[in-house]
Design goal:
Alpha-Beta Plaits, 2 domains, single chain, 27% strand, 31% helix
Length: 225
Amino acid sequence: MLVKDFMTPDPVTITPDTSHQEAVRIMREHGFRRLPVIDKHGKLVGIVVEKDLLSTQPSPATTLSIWEIHNLLSKLKVKEFMSHPVYIVGEDCPLEDAAKIMVEKKIGCLPVMRGDKLVGIITETDIFKAFTRMLAGGEPGIRVTVRLHRHRGVLAELAKAIADVGGRIVSLATLNEPDGEHKRVAIKVINTTAEQLEQAIRTHADWEILDIRAGGACREPEVVG
């Protein structure tokens, strides 16, 4: 899976001379939280994120009048508060590498380039959507997490054990443990029961079921306060 498979193509852009008020209007109108900044030559020169707009607004405790605030913001240009330089990725960058860059650089998005041309933008929301799809989040099935040794062919053995009870794997993800000897495998399975699945896995003494449940059990969010 590559960035181009999940990015938003042809993102809306602004220029360095776009006013603060216009940038706010565009974000609110389209529901965006980021706007790439392109100069008159079509070159990416910066990015404006929602926090940039908020940080440039006067404090609520200001003694300025509404008219004075409006007048100040109308004169403020994007080039005065945009973030730059900008971390970028190519459209053929693996999705996991883009996610790693976001985590390491503590940023929420990456403009996507094809050579010198901006062709898209990938955000943490896009990463979450990809993660959800990879794990078949919210879809029916039995979700089981198994801890097993990291020896060659172990995933094939696990897949065979599931197939032997009629199960079909619809998603699979692995996580290597720090000890270097074990891994956790999260699988969603359909066409079998939790009881059959559990029995098939427990026939292997060195496989440990950490969790087993119906998929979608946490689909509805709880609300407090």
